[in-house]
Structure formats: C-alpha cells, structure tokens
Amino acid sequence: GQAYGLAFLGSGDLVAACGDKSLVVWTRSPARAADDAARKAYEALATAAAAANAAAAAPTAGGASEFSFPVTLGGREMQLQWSRGEDPQAVAERFCSQNGLNATQHGGDVVTFVRQAMQKAGGDAAGAGAGAGAKDFSYPVEVEDGRKLTITWDRGEDPRAVALEFARRHGGIGADELPRIVQFIQQVSGSTPAAAAPAPAPAAPVSEAAQQEAMMQLMAMGFEENSARIALQATNWNVEAAVLRMV
Fold first, then answer.
1. Is residue 214 within 8 Å of residue 237, measured between CB atoms?
2. What is the distance between the alpha carbons of residues 215 and 220, in angstroms, rounded to a whole number?
3. pLDDT interval class at 19 (50, 70, 90)
4. Which of 26, 131, 229, 233 is the most buried (most CB within 10 A)?
C-alpha cells in the first residue's frame, strides 16, 4: 500500500504511516525486531485488512446502483455509484479504491458530495446515528490546498471540536489551519474563545508503542514534535485532547 508519512524515532528506527491505517517500524537492531509470533500476527492482520479493502471495493449486491454520477478528475473519466442507504464513508472508500485515488486527499470531498446528493433525493442516509435535522450553521469554505468544502455545526458546539471533526472528515488540513477555522466558527456563532480544557485525571500508563503512534498522528497533522509531545504528556497521550489543547 501507500506510505503517507515517515519519521525517525529517538532510537534510530524508522516509522512509516501506511495507507491501511497501520504503522510499520523498521529497525537495524535484532534486539528490537519483532519475534516470529508477532510477525505472523501482523501478517494475519495485513491479510484481513486487504480482504476488507477488497470487500469495500466490490460492487454493491443486488444489481445496478440507484445513484450514478460521472466524475472527471485529472483528465480521467470515472463513475461514482451507490445505492440508497449506503454509508457515504463506505461509498467514498470504495470509489477511491476502485479508481486508485488517495482516500486521504479525495475521500472527504466524495463523502460531502454523496451526502448532499442523498439530501436532495430526499433520503439523508449519512450513516447510523446521524441526526435527521439540518445543522444550525452551514458555510462554504476554501482550505489552503484549494478544495471548496462545507463546514456545518450546531449552536452551542465547541468550536475547537467542530474544527477538529472538520479536519478529520476531509483530511489534508494542516495543524496551522485549525486556529483560523476555530476563529471563524467563533465569529459566526458570536461566541467567545473557550477556556482550555483541564487535563484529564491520571490514568493507567500508556505503552511506548501507543505513545509513538500518538506522536505520529499529531506530526502527520503538521504539529511540531516537541509541541506534540508536551500536549500528549499533559493529556495522558489522548490525541484528540492534545489537538484541542494546541488549537
């Protein structure tokens, strides 16, 4: 699969953030290398992930899709298809997989388009647990990479949480953009900046592997290593709490 980020650890090992949402650590030290059992377990997980991706890319059962839209991207002609009731996120993952597209870069746009099309068709199937009513605020925005997106939220929502969810949903939004998004939401909502959330109560120790994974996630979003480490240590290595602390 694709590798979306590389970084060296303090030990000299190399970490790769992969397109299948896994982290692979490469080391020259036999003492730190995984044993046979761990390697076999990883191979089993990789095989299961590949099977899941293949299933996501398979055509919808039951014949032709109910919705079909032509898509032109980079001179390529593609077809975006789905059936009523499908999860927009699953539709986006299948479309990107079928057409060899970067899901991190294009998945958010596909999800937004599918949801809007579902709403226009009178069947908002945005997924289990999604609210049936429209959001209180909805604004078109253009992010730094040129994409034109729509940000929505309800009155009373925490602007920082809204900005973080927006960045997660669409991908490719850097950490330096989050403060401006938060400020925009505050201005539109007429709210004042919220006080920084208190650090969580002491919890069980977090493993070194989990700490490294949390660091990789924040650094992939564009946060500096030192700032990310301080924020994670202050929040017991909770990635979401650390991001909210820094924006």
1. yes
2. 8
3. low
4. 229
Q: What is the value of pTM for the model shown?
A: 0.36
Alpha carbons 11 and 25: distance in angstroms, whole number = 11
Amino acid at 148: K
Amino acid 191 reads S
For the cut 60, the answer to whether the pLDDT of residue 215 exceeds it is yes
The average pLDDT across 23-39 equals 83
- Tens of pLDDT, residue by residue over 56-112, are 555 544 556 778 888 877 778 888 888 878 888 888 888 888 888 888 888 888 888
**CA atoms of 83 and 60, how far apart (whole Å):** 7
Q: Give the position of tokens 């002491």.
A: 202
C-alpha neighbours within 13 Å on the C-beta side of residue 28:
4
Euclidean distance between CA atoms 237 and 219, whole angstroms: 13
Contact 108, 149 (CB under 8 A): yes
Please give the Cα distance from 78 to 97 (Å, whole number). Answer: 12
Across 188-203, average pLDDT: 57
